[in-house]
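Section: protein folds

Sequence with per-residue tokens
===
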Amino acid sequence: MRKILALASLVLVLATPAMAQEKPALVTVVTSPEPQTQLMAMVLTMQSVQQGAKAHVLLCGPAADIALKNAPASAMALQKPKGMSPKGLMQTILKKTDTSVDVCALYLPNKGLSEDALIDGVGVAEPPQMAERLLAENTRVLSF
């Protein structure tokens, strides 16, 4: 009986950390107007998702331009060495992962645009929900 109890205790101790682990959460905040910086933000977000993170991308200021249907040429500029663009990789992330992408709540009104100016899959961040994501336990914030 002691052996069974000891074995059961050991199994419980060893299994608990693995069962208790949640996916780490990642919030990537991108404000930079630089295509290389925007692309690196998308590369690191994609890599994090591929390694088990649950991610959310928040685009603010000039970086939010990559979410527009009629994005500026810089959003589509191919970067070396892989020939990817910030907008292209963001769209791949939207299609191939469960990552959500939002523009900040101030972006569209200050550009004189409505939500229909955004590509499919991109939303507008709600400040209370965004704050909740940022403050959630086990969340890492990347800011570019």
Notes: The two ends are 58 Å apart (CA to CA). Residues 2-20 form the longest helix (19 residues). The first strand starts at residue 25 and ends at 30.
